[in-house]
## 1
Amino acid sequence: MANPTAAAILWPEKFLPGSTDNYVSNEVVVADLDFDDVWPYLADCSHWEAYYDNIGQITPPPTGTFFTPEAVGSHFNFATFGFPPLEIILEELVPPTATTPGRMAWRAWLPGATGDDHIEVYHAWIVENAPWSSPSKKVVRVLTQESQIGVPAKNLATTVPSPMLLGHQKWLDGLIAYAKEKKEKK
């Protein structure tokens, strides 16, 4: 059963799931972590390659590697899923608090690609403590979803097993393992 109190992605109309060529959703709910343990390693792209091997050639925005609300509208780049570096614009960044979920989202495209090579994506994240989390029993929820447009997206959608679904799960699992490792070292 879905959790009706859990935060959801705020989709631009162009990328609404079910109206694009490919869509994936991955989520983890993990005990013994809270948003403060996870958010710093998601919001700082200097950590990504340490826990996710499907990303590289990261060029952070001019505002730095740690994304803040002031970075919304900034451009950055990275390569993933065999694509050369994508052009990316940070669309949403809201750090989590005890009462609001953390939100991060970007829009990405392959610069100069046209026709059958064109791909455009919207990738969003939510990081929040579960409603049943407490100071004595912490539980964090991390959700990532991506909606894609273009022939490469159609090809990804028909590939079994889904490279997007598996790749994003690997990103989530890596983020959680990395956060646990960093927490243990504190």
## 2
Amino acid sequence: MPDARIDSDTLHVSRIFDASRDRVFEAWTRKDQFVRWMCPPGVEITLCEIDVRRGGAWRIDGRNAQGVFSSSGVYLDVVPPERLVFTWAHHADGDFAGARGHETTVRVEFRSLGNRTQLTLIHGPFADTEDFRCHREGWDGSFGKLETLLRGAP
């Protein structure tokens, strides 16, 4: 079970995966893998672009039962295979060209535990409790899919 806590308006999640640090980092930085686990179950990603380098951009478009969405950001720090830091903005109704939603920062750290990896994610600050809750549920669902990918399951 993942460890998650609230530090004011920021989400902290720590999870251990049965895969090497290089393998887990690769799942975050290779488009063909990223698209398979990013976003919780019930979300179909319709577009994925990632340019994993400092100053590079990322974007996902998708749809779920509530409609369409876009999220995007810029990589602020990339230290393979130790750390990724990037911004995260949600675009209302999938309108990528339109106004950006509240922007947050995501910091992901990868710590080697032999053949396992401790992933620590810090995401925030969030504008309100509902935004925090939605992202916590989203990351929990995404990490479940990431675990399946890392086990090699289809």
